[in-house]
Amino acid sequence: MAKTKEMRTFNISVVGLSGTERDKGAQGVGKSCLCNRFVRPLADNYFHEHISVLSQSDFGGRVVNNDHFLYWGEVTKTWDEGQDFTFHVVEQTEFIDDTSFQTLRTSTFMPYIKRAAVAKVVSAEKLMYICKDQLGIEQDFEQKTMPEGKLNIDGFILVCDVSLVQNRPQEDQMRFLQNCFTTLAKTKKPALLVATKCDDAVDQYLREARDFASNRRVGIPLVETSAHENVNVDLAFVVLAQMIDKSRGKSKIIPFHEAAVRRKEVLDVATEAYQNLVVRTVRDYHDTWNSVSKKLEREPDFQHYCDLLGKMSAKKLFRRHIKKLKEEHQARRQVEYLSQLPRALDALAPSLDLILDRTWPSVQNILQRQDQFEEWFVVLPEDMPWRESDHVDSMVDKRIPFDLLEMPEAETVFKNHVNKLQAAQKKERMKHEFRRLLEHTGHVLPGKPWEDVHIFLMEEESYQELTEGEKIDIYSYHQRELIERAREDFQELLFEKADLFARLDPHEQISHQDLVDIKEALQEESRYQALARLDNERDVLLLKHIGFITCPSKETCLSGPNCMETLLQNAVDTAVHRPTSWNRHSQWMFDPNASQLNIVILGADGLADELANEIKLQCNEEEYTLDGNIYSLELRPIDGDVTQPMSSFKTPKFTPNGCICVYDSVESLKYAQSSLEQTVIRSGTLSIDKKERAPFQGLPCAVILARNSANTDKDLSYLREEGQHLAERLQCPFIDISSTEFFPNRKFQEAQIQQAMRALVESFRHREGWIGSQSIEQLMEPDIKVKLSTVCGDPYNVELPLAPLLNHQCCTAAPEKPSTLIVETFLGSCKRRVELRLTSFHSAQKYRDELVHGYILVYSAKRKASLANVRAFASNLKNVPVHILAVTESGSVNAFFTNDVEQVLITEGNALADQLTAKFSTTSSQFQKQTAVFTPFFKECWEKKESTETAYKRQPSSEDEPTEREVWESTFGRVRPPATLPKPSRVPLPRYSYDEAPQNYNSDEEPPPYNGEGYHDNHHEEHLLKPSQVRDRQQQGRGWIDNRLYDRSAGRQDTTRWHENVLYNQVRPPGNKPLPPGPKPMIPAKPIRKIKSIRGQPHGTDRQATTDSDSEYNSSLERERRDIYNRRPTPKKTGKRRVPDNEGSPPPSRGPYASTDIIRNRPTGTGNSPSEDSAGTGDEFPKNTGLKKKKSFRKGTTKRRDATSPQTSDTDAISPRPAGRFAPDSAYQSDGDDEERKKRNKELEKLERQQRKDTKRKQKEEEKLKKKMEKQKSKTKPFPLPQQKNLSGNYFGLPMEKIVQSEDNPIPLFVEMCVKYIENEGIRTEGIFRVNGKKEDTDLIRLKFDEEEITDLNDLQVADGDHKVSVNAAAGALKSFFVELPEPLIPHSVHDDLIVAISTKDDQIKTRNLREVLRKLSPVTQAVFKYLLEHLYRVSEFSSDNKMTSENLAICFMPTLMRPDFSTFDMGAQSQKILLMDNFIRLTPQIYEDAGS
């Protein structure tokens, strides 16, 4: 059996030139470095320097151990083919004493050459040498002893240094090598020549070494090495080992240069890998080596690099990378600062005037003095450059370091800024000159193209300097201005020619000749000729104006949002309110059952205390007797600042019921006025704030003028006049000085005090009656009615002419009457209620047939068209008082003498007033505080009330017009009109003088019961009822004709008392009285059936809580009950009874300038009959009425209807009619007409059967749809809706098919409203659809829309007083709409198809696929989804501002529109759906580019 060969250990001795510096030169030959690199090759274990000069103690240490050789230790090397070599390395050297610099002596000292050839080295306990730092502190290093204290040398490495060394001639080294080799050869041991320091070799020395090795007498191998570079070091020892053991083969000796190249390649690869590792790991130049090296310890590339080059080299490379990062960061910040510098210069030096002809350093000083300097620049400490400061690292503070401006690049930016300003200035100058050129040249006319103009401008400098695009843009803009100005001027011309259009009959069709006549009248006007090139547009404007004049409305008003109807309503809504002092639970409301009176006495200079003492003298133990009643008095005299707690009206123990204001001089009067203005009197400055503007507004008051002997007659007259004016502002009595002289030295008389106390008590009782005993309708029943009309488009604030009314102490908004005010003021000796309806002139025609006691016509003194409209309107006013008000914002005097136009218009307005025998006035600078400015006119209207009503009643009628009885009977048949309602009570509040006694008035008498002939007025007044009033009364909540008033039993008297009748608990019509009763009805009627309206409130309930606006939500039945004027009866079925319908439509609208002396009764179709919107045939009236058919202004054809033909519309066929209705001609039919009745009964029964079939069919369809929806819900698990309170259940949460606007526009109104608001008000809002708005605002939007109070979010006022809700709130409301849909907008059934559709990367194929899937949706869903996508695409176009890209929008809308199942949340599936929504939004233009898609 073959014996296994054991691994052999090679003991190598390294020898070379050694000794003192004189022997070996300034440096050694590299024996220690060669041994160090071979035994410990790692870079961190390799030491470049080793020491041979030692102290005696180090020489005697265990490492040297008094020997002249070093034991380097044991190492194992793996060579080619997996061979392992184990070496023990010994270095033969010669140590020098550090004191004598002579060779240290040992007990067995031998010369170096002889010692180097020793074949066996012995040294007991000798430790392995590592580095020079080991000497003396051996315990701190690894301790390893030489094996057995001895080694048998197997071979020698003879070292030859081929580098240039000072003080060492090469000949000496070669001589040493020759001698040493001769000695080594005697040992018969293999020897190898190693050339060291070849990386710094001298070629001659290297050639000599080669020659020496190749010498025939030497003949040993030569290996060229470099210990520092670790080149061929291992090769030298392995070659020697192979020489020792021939069986280990023979390695090829590689030349140094080739080996160095290979070594460099290894180092480069390792360095590149490490650099890449550092770049990937280190991104911040603030990172430290300690933290980074710990992260890199486990990285192979880092370890490999450290093994080859060491950690110090790795650290250097890391620091180099950190420095590079810092320089790059500073360079980036410098670029950012320099890019920001132009914007800073634009903000701080926007004009050349500030910086022109100045040096850059001086401009820097100017910049520092600007207010916005700190917004753009930051000044750092002087000793800290901006590159080294912490500011350069700040990502929040991006201001420019001020010292950066010292750089040449900053000065270059400044020069560019100056050049830019100069170029822009020149450009603007050229543009301005070009615009002026266009304005002053006579060749530019409205509508004239640029091609026809530019040839006249080519020689101008501005033309030559501007580009063609800039010139065209300026010309286009100038043309738009010219055309718009010409349009406005032409429109103003049409308004100024109001008399020209007043001749048009709104009920007749406008003929071509009419247009020709109008154009001929206007053709000489320059404003007409200005649109000669735009004759089509001019004709459109003319026709539009004629259409508006003949059929005016707020929606078609040519003033748009500045329509006076809207502005007046806003003024009433925002500036008028009912004082809280009028509420039943007001803190100062007097309880009539109580006997305690708390009175504030307000007076300066001791007057308050004097009056309080006088009142106490009239009391008996603080009890005051008045008109047989005893009151307990508590008085609070005040003569200080009422805003301070010490002089406040109210204290914790005192709450006032009334106030007595006393004065006797100018000073005390001023004190009273200022104090009352801070507490009681409404402010003279209008505000939109609906809160109480005076803390004690409405507090009952009385004003007393006290006697003062120092006053002259002139002073007394002035004080009396001012006191009366103050009493008018307070709407309270003014009590003058007593004329009796019983006690001439006393300031007050007992009669004055009694009158004041009586006035307060009467005010208490009146206020209590106002609040408690009367309904709102009775409360607001006016004494006179006045119309205040304004012209749309007038250039003044609408609150200016209304200021005296809005600031009136007793002005409130009329309930259930839009744009209507109720003013309580003294007219004569009593307080009267004046109803003022605020209208525009174009809307005044709606009320021309109503009883009006006066007109206030308002016009602007700056606008000719305004006065022209007033003149045209007033020309037809007869037998009614008129007040013309000219509005001048600067005051009448200033306007008259400083403005020629206003002077002319004021003069003409005054002349018009003289012509009409009307009052004329102008606004003044104090107009807002003149709350009694209209009082004289109201008095005139009150005084002429009887004559006005008489003239109104006796208006002439022509042959074409029916009598009132005929209109009544044609409308209602021979049905008895309702009874006269009781009048509301009137409690007069007189303005007492000292000797006047109060007059008690009470008219609360119960009317007599119905006696079979109808109710009659107690005072035998004639009933003032016109046909148009029949229409108006039908439009107020429930119709004022109600058969429940009367017992239908023949000949039986109604014993129900008037206050017990149900109708009197409903809304009663104001003012007008009914006609005398007609004959009793022929057929008794059933009670009206109660149905539910859209809002869910049954009809027939108490209507007091229903406003006028609620009528919009009534059902078709409720609407049809009001349309009973001049309409052909259509038989309907209600229940099982045949009840003919007698509903009609109101008279047509009339032009604003039509005469009030004519009552036109032209039928128009506004109901639900087939003749709706038709001109009428004339058969709508019964034959006995005597009405004639006239030509209609409306176009279109109408079908003649037979009087007996039971035609119905689609709506009529399914809408039940209320019982108790009669055809207008039913009263004229004989009881024996059985055939006609049978025929109608059959037709009605047929309609009833059809109605039942339609109802059943509809129910079946609804049940089928419901089952289908439930089945679909069971298949898919929908996204759980948020658990929140549903604020509006009538609209939100319904299927979209039920809330579409129309067949042509299927977009829900709420979606359209929100989208328009978002795009108009804030499409650039950052974070829209992501950032939530206020929840209360979102809920308010939904609530107000569901109540149908808004259709435009611009009309919505939020709770904090801001006029507009936030865009985020609107966006949240829009999302909540889609969240609450019963089914998601994108059904679950198409989700998988949509995901497949976007699986391709080709956008064209993707778009085509998405179109195919979308076609599977319902038409309504497709339309809504398209509308929403187009909106989201427009939002994404502004992503640079709102930060909402298509991806961000997809993240926000995917859960809303697709409702994924989050209970089994799959991140991948949700990501796909988000990607789907992103594709939808991004590809919206391509998806819908084809109209048919």
Short note summarizing the structure:
With 1493 residues, this protein is of the alpha/beta class. A 7-stranded mixed β-sheet has the order 20-21-22-19-23-24-25, sandwiched between helices.
Q: Could you explain how this protein is built, in words?
A:
This protein has 48 helices and 27 strands. With 1493 residues, the protein is of the alpha/beta class. The strands form seven sheets. The protein has a seven-stranded mixed sheet, with helices on both faces. Strands 3-4-1-8-9-10 form a six-stranded mixed sheet, with helices on both faces. The protein has a six-stranded mixed sheet with strand order 14-15-13-16-17-18, sandwiched between helices. β21 and β22 form a beta hairpin. α17 packs parallel to α29.
What is the topological layout?
Elements: E1 9-15, H1 21-24, H2 31-39, E2 53-54, H3 56-60, E3 69-78, E4 84-92, E5 96-97, H4 112-116, E6 120-122, E7 150-152, E8 155-161, H5 170-185, E9 191-196, H6 203-214, E10 222-224, H7 233-244, H8 256-281, H9 289-296, H10 300-309, H11 311-348, H12 352-355, H13 360-368, H14 373-376, E11 377-378, E12 400-401, H15 408-440, H16 461-465, H17 468-496, H18 498-502, H19 512-522, H20 526-529, H21 535-550, H22 564-575, E13 596-602, H23 607-617, E14 623-626, E15 629-638, E16 658-663, H24 666-679, E17 701-705, H25 713-730, E18 734-735, H26 750-773, H27 776-779, E19 784-790, H28 799-806, E20 811-813, E21 820-827, E22 830-840, E23 854-860, H29 864-874, E24 882-887, H30 892-898, H31 900-916, E25 919-922, H32 935-943, H33 945-953, H34 964-972, H35 1027-1034, H36 1116-1122, E26 1132-1134, E27 1137-1139, H37 1210-1214, H38 1234-1275, H39 1309-1321, H40 1335-1346, H41 1367-1379, H42 1391-1397, H43 1403-1414, H44 1419-1437, H45 1439-1442, H46 1446-1458, H47 1467-1482, H48 1484-1487
Parallel strand pairs: 1-4, 1-8, 2-5, 8-9, 9-10, 11-12, 13-15, 13-16, 16-17, 17-18, 19-22, 19-23, 23-24, 24-25
Antiparallel strand pairs: 3-4, 6-7, 14-15, 20-21, 21-22, 26-27
Helix pairs in contact: 8-10, 8-11, 10-11, 11-15, 15-17, 17-21, 17-29, 29-31, 30-31, 39-41, 40-41, 46-47
